[in-house]
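Newbie here. two chains, one complex. Structure please?
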Amino acid sequence: MREREQIEAIIENIEKVMIGKKDIAQLAVVALLAQGHVLLEDVPGVGKTMMVRALAKSIGADFKRIQFTPDLLPSDVLGVSIYNPKEMEFEFRPGPILGNIVLADEINRTSPKTQSALLEGMEEASVTIDGVTIPIPKPFFVMATQNPIEHEGTYPLPEAQLDRFLLKLKMGYPHPSEEIEVLNRLEHASPIDTLLPVISLEELIELQKQVKQVKVDGTMKSYIVDLANRTRQDTYIYLGVSPRASIALMRASQGLAMLHGRDYVTPDDIQYLMPYVFGHRVILRPEARYDGISSEEVLARIVKRTPVPIKRAVSQ
Amino acid sequence: MSKKTKEYFLSGFIYLFVFILMLEWLKPVIVLTDTDYLNLFGWYLVISFVFYLLKWKWLYVFPIKLVYICWVIVHIYTDYSFLSLESFRLLVEMFIDNITSMLGRDWSDVTDPFRTFLFFILLWMTTYLLNYWIRVRKNLMLFFLFTVLFITILDTFSPYSGEKSIIIVLMAGFIILGLLYAQKMMHEQEGRLHGAFLAVSIGSLLTVVVISSAFAYVLPKAGPSWPDPVPFLLSTSPNASNGDAGKGVGGATQKVGYGENDERLGGAFANDNTPVFYAATPTKQYWKIETKDTYTSKGWVNSAIESPIWKSFELGEPIESDILPAMEGEFLVASIYMSQAYPFIMQPYGIKQVNSGVPFSLSMDVSTQKLYTIDGGNETPISMYDVTYNEPVYSLKELREVVPKNLEGLSSDFDRYLQLPDTLPTRVKELATSITSKSESLYDKAKSIERYFQLNGFSYNQDLAAIPEGNTDYVDQFLFDTKIGYCDNFSTSMVVLLRSEGIPARWVKGFAPGEVVDRENGLPVYEVTNNNAHSWVEAYFPNVGWVTFEPTIGFSNAINLNYDVDSEKDELETPENTPEKTPEKPQGDKEEKEVSKGFTEIMSNIAKWLSDHKALIFWTIVGLALLSMLAYHYRRKWLVKVLIPVNRMRKNDWDTFEKMYLQLLKQLDAYGITREPGQTLSAYAKYVDASFGETHMSKLTAAYEKGLYGNSKDGINYVSMRESWENLINQLSG
């Protein structure tokens, strides 16, 4: 399985930099393979940037970083046409979004106008400036980070825009022993500087094509739809997930199956990814908050109650 | 079968049986109200239900129904042709006239044709409601219940006989309930139910209901447990009881309880649970009030009324009752709290003395043994007193030693306990002789009589006891004709039978022990109500004294017996009865055979075979039950083992593997390793392997998941899979 080796190599590379976050690294790679984008939600300083940079370096991709601030304008993201008096014409200066791997740091710190400029670019995989549509080079992978909503001076992303992210992940603090290891590695040098690419961009694009060939059996499709349906009927959920979420779950599951070296999706893939795919796409009722129930718990309950298909669908 | 056809099929059945139920509503109305033309109303129901079944719009249904109703009215009340002008005019006039009079509230002016019309409207509304219940609520329980109630009430209180009707109603009702459930199920499955499944389930429903109803119909049924309430209600209403006055004391239902007049026994009793007294007493016992000695062939009187002998006692003084307390053992005290004002003592057997916080004296009528409470020279009810007693103990040896010969030296004082009316039919005496002939001692003879009632088809019933009319003897009627009655029947009959055999006996009145309702100072408190009023028997044995007997079915008042005899002789008691019983059986069989014909003959043959092979059948059933219990208990062991050879016969391919894997899941579940519905197979496999310490399940699951979810069934090593599978199955059964 060449694909599996390639993917393993990427993850191993990231692990050189990131300690004890294999699952997050895997999920980031899954999103990359499934051509989705990731929203990382956590406090500053837990290694979000480090991971994206490691990922970019591993695939030899162009890495751009946008630090969002309240005064950032859409043109700062997309790029701007500047008049060149020598040439007597406008010249396009591409913005940071026109890279392969874009880290959109603290996306909830900027104004909704700038946020939507980024999110539109993510959705369309192209930007339109002064009437000219410029395609964003492939592969295109955005990893946005945001501080938890509780922090002051933020503009929370609207639900519709959250839908643009394939996965929403949380880094979490490292284990004390892992944190010591981090200190050890950074004592004399930064390992990120010595990281080398393990696959080329072309190979990655090929992998992304391969992901779509991973088999999703009819039973698995109906399992995904069943799960999605149950979020729409759950008593704690005000708004269930959209069909786009079902598609996202299927695509991500294909990515995970490939990561595990399988050419078919299993219920385990779906169950594992479901909280990351659906978590930011459901809106809980106020009752859930009163009862102290998080969306993770609601989704875990749905997974627990939804029967896993274990037989071939009986044709009626 | 398409979904629609299935629905029509089911609904059609439901409407058919609802129609049958509706018809059962119509029938009594037709019978009881001088209405006629059941068929015309029936057809109307048919039309209604067919339209509901086809779900026609009311726009079409309404005129059709209206035309039908008008046609019926014209057809019933006139000779006109329906399409003629006259009939049209008649209908128009009918509507105008009747609606006018209805608006004017002249109800008496409403004509019969219009009443018929209104009846149709009522039927219309009923069918509409039924349709609503079927289509929307999918529940007809209420209607079914009301139909049963309606039929039973009509059957009870009106001349209409609901005998057949109730069977039809029950059958149709149960079928409807079943069909509605099937319909509900079909809706839940969104019509995915298989046609064959539907047909089988409906077929089996019909079969079960029809067969069980047929059985219920054919099987013999017990008589009503209470009599027809109508005569009873009539008899209690004041008007009716006036009319019965001429019939004598027992004409109407009497209230149960203690009364002094026993001249005319018999007749039904109404229950009355008014408390008479409460007794805090360490032992459960009978409360004796008095005895009576003269049987009049209708009831009991006292012979010594003209010259009563009185004995007086003070409180705390030993009472000279003719049944003395036992010498051994300790004396017990019962505290009596009277709820009703009776001026006499409730005597436990073995009474020694009476004490009370209030002063009074006691006076005993020796001939009746009734112990009156006297204060200031008058009979005065006392509300609280204590009775000290010690129940007498009889030696069985001494009792058995009393033989008929001992009776010869009896003094003439006992003549009144041997009195019998001259009119007593001789067959009573013959019966007494035949019952007692096998017994030697007087005590065994008395016991035989006491036991006679238990074995020979007598039954206890307060409502069906007969009142002897004319020259009929109360005892003779009970012993030979009715064989049904309450304590007075049993006790009087036993006294008469004892006397016929020359054993002195008397009739005792009092109360049965009652129910424990409380505890006081560690003693149970018995509540004795009017319902506990009772009568029993005392027989006199020379050298021993008076001994009590309890012939009434359902009551027991065993005397304290000292079993001081050889056990062999004691066992003789049981075989005594067998000869009495056997001669009757073949007789009964013969009669049955003469009567039986066809079906009954077969049934009786089956019954006979069953009764002849009782032991065999019993042990077969017990054996089968044990076997199936064992088989069920060890089902995991053998059931699982069966799976291995069965599956070995199958081919090594995916289909077999799939079947085997699913069987394994089932067996694992039965073993107790359950899979949550939301648990994936691979997670479950890890769990299973963790319990068995191997990796067979994960191996099987990986292959199964690859085949199921990946649809790649090549490359599975079925032989190796089978080994793992058998390994797991063996572990499950081990």
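Moderator note: The two ends of chain A are 38 Å apart (CA to CA). The domain at 212-305 of chain A is CATH 1.10.8.80 (Helicase, Ruva Protein; domain 3). Thread marked as resolved.
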